[in-house]
Amino acid sequence: MASIQVKCPSCQGESVYRHGKARSGLQRYRCRDCHHCFQREYLYEANKPGVTDKISDMAMNGSGVRDTGRVLRISVTTVIAHLKNSSHPPSHRSRSMKPVTKPERVKQIETSLLKNKTTNGLFWQPIM
């Protein structure tokens, strides 16, 4: 019987034991050092390591939700769920940027739209 050497992807520890099976039927493992559960191979693309970082990177680079799903071969709903649930800002965001509240952001968008408007000085506003 051949044994396979399995290392923990988070701490690189070698004290790993089998920890049941996933819903997909693949073997799960657990590290004795950091208690991280993982699989050697994943059936679904969205569960593979690094996919969540790619989703955040593509969103920060201006890729749309459908484009991100198509490139990474994952569901659009998975992309949306990740972007909604990501509580941490992407790691490459500058720390010098201050958080902007929603009213401030709306004001920034309105002023940028007014600056870029080229309608000979005419600006229509709805009458209420």
Automatic annotation (TrEMBL):
<feature type="domain" description="InsA N-terminal zinc ribbon">
    <location>
        <begin position="1"/>
        <end position="35"/>
    </location>
</feature>
<protein>
    <submittedName>
        <fullName>InsA N-terminal domain-containing protein</fullName>
    </submittedName>
</protein>
<comment type="function">
    <text>Absolutely required for transposition of IS1.</text>
</comment>
<dbReference type="InterPro" id="IPR051252">
    <property type="entry name" value="IS1_transposase_InsA"/>
</dbReference>
<comment type="similarity">
    <text>Belongs to the IS1 elements InsA family.</text>
</comment>
<feature type="region of interest" description="Disordered">
    <location>
        <begin position="84"/>
        <end position="104"/>
    </location>
</feature>
<dbReference type="InterPro" id="IPR024431">
    <property type="entry name" value="InsA_HTH_dom"/>
</dbReference>
<keyword id="KW-0233">DNA recombination</keyword>
<feature type="domain" description="Insertion element IS1 protein InsA helix-turn-helix">
    <location>
        <begin position="42"/>
        <end position="86"/>
    </location>
</feature>
<dbReference type="Pfam" id="PF12759">
    <property type="entry name" value="HTH_Tnp_IS1"/>
</dbReference>
<dbReference type="InterPro" id="IPR003220">
    <property type="entry name" value="InsA_N_dom_Znf"/>
</dbReference>
<dbReference type="Pfam" id="PF03811">
    <property type="entry name" value="Zn_ribbon_InsA"/>
</dbReference>
<dbReference type="GO" id="GO:0006313">
    <property type="term" value="P:DNA transposition"/>
</dbReference>
<keyword id="KW-0815">Transposition</keyword>
